[in-house]
């Protein structure tokens, strides 16, 4: 069933598990996400970025909405990194049940102002809202220890932000970053900070940049002819721990991008004569389903629907 983000995330926060929020860009990705959620009896969030809306538009949103409506588990359709009030409103008009307003690059007061506008409009239509406070980015990029605090979410500021905006869930900067290169070795995730914010705030917290970039997938990508550098992601156990402290929504895009490319490359490499799209995209869908299944296990959402 198609539900709001709040319907999924409030029970997750209370139950100390997290729900995967997977980015989609086409039918196969959407099927991998929603069919795996049904198989595992897990709630799930499917998200589309503004780039995904530009690429797939209402056609893609309708695929998600149709699969979600027919699903026997709760599914929300969420706008990822909405950049303006207009963008959030447009997504709601398209049928999204959850929107993110990402004004985190603005000064605090402006972030509050932009977020509040979206919250008021979205709530009037029964849609839930995610906002962001703090700056994402690898800690590696900001090696001076004192500086890192300037980028990560300040717990007291987070309380003030939620009080002033009324956002339903909050994305916090805890050391993760977007993409396949999250730093060398084991990328940093500030558990103490999550714990502190989780003690001060009872709303669900959101972790962006949470792909695991599994070594096995990276290896397969290389073996199939793909070129990828020193890739690294967030360790499984770090996400499991973060869910105990209040992280209830975990954003994953990169892992599905890697998985689909692995699936496609492996077929094309092994069978150069193949040109039936079903034989090419089908295996990619299977590799993505395995990633979704693994992540749901790590986050503890299996059997919660
Ligand atoms: O956080 C960003 C997501 O990975 C979406 O990326 O804007 O290229 O669709 P995109
Ligand atoms: P990854 O790049 O780690 O998959 O993060 C995706 C994300 O945060 C989407 O909002
Ligand atoms: Zn993100």
UniProtKB/TrEMBL annotation:
Cofactor: Zn(2+)
Active site, UniProt feature: 80 (proton donor)
Pfam families for this protein: F_bP_aldolase
GO molecular function: fructose-bisphosphate aldolase activity; zinc ion binding
UniProt binding sites for dihydroxyacetone phosphate: 179, 209-211, 251-254
InterPro entries listed in its UniProt record: Aldolase_TIM (IPR013785), Class_II_FBP_aldolase (IPR050246), FBA_II (IPR000771), Fruc_bis_ald_class-2 (IPR011289)
Amino-acid positions noted as binding Zn(2+) 2 in the UniProt annotation, renumbered to this chain: 102, 132
Biological-process GO terms, alphabetical: fructose 1,6-bisphosphate metabolic process; glycolytic process
Lineage: superkingdom: Bacteria
Comment on bound cofactor: Binds 2 Zn(2+) ions per subunit. One is catalytic and the other provides a structural contribution.
PROSITE patterns: ALDOLASE_CLASS_II_1 (PS00602), ALDOLASE_CLASS_II_2 (PS00806)
UniProt KW keywords: Lyase, Metal-binding, Zinc
Ligand binding (Zn(2+) 1): 81, 178, 208
Name of the protein in question: Fructose-bisphosphate aldolase
């Amino acid at each position: 069933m198609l539900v709001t983000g709040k319907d999924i995330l409030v029970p997750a926060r209370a139950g100390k598990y997290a729900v995967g929020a997977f980015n989609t860009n086409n039918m196969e990705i959407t099927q991998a996400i929603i069919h795996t959620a049904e198989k595992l009896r897990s709630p799930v969030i499917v998200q589309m970025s503004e780039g995904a809306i530009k690429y797939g538009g209402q056609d893609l949103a309708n695929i998600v909405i149709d699969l979600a409506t027919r699903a026997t588990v709760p599914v929300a359709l969420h706008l990822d990194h909405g950049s303006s009030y207009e963008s959030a409103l447009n997504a709601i008009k398209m049928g999204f049940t959850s929107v993110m307003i990402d004004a985190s690059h603005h000064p605090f007061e402006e972030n509050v102002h932009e977020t509040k506008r979206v919250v008021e409009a979205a709530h009037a239509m029964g849609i839930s809202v995610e906002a962001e406070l703090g700056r994402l980015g690898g800690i590696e990029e900001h090696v001076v220890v004192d500086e890192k605090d300037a980028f990560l979410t300040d717990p007291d500021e987070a309380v003030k932000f939620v009080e002033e905006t009324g956002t339903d869930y909050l994305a916090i900067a805890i050391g993760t970053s977007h993409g396949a290169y999250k730093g060398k070795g084991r990328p940093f995730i500030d558990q103490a900070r999550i714990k502190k914010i989780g003690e001060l705030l009872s709303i669900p917290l959101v972790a962006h940049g949470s792909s695991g970039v599994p070594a096995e997938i990276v290896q397969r990508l290389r073996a199939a002819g793909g070129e990828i550098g020193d890739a690294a992601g967030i360790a499984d156990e770090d996400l499991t721990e973060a869910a105990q402290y209040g992280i209830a929504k975990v954003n994953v895009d990169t892992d599905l991008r890697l998985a689909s490319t692995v699936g496609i490359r492996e077929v094309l490499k092994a069978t150069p004569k193949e040109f039936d799209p079903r034989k090419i995209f089908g295996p990619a869908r299977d590799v993505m389903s395995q990633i979704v299944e693994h992540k749901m296990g790590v986050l503890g959402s299996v059997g919660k629907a």
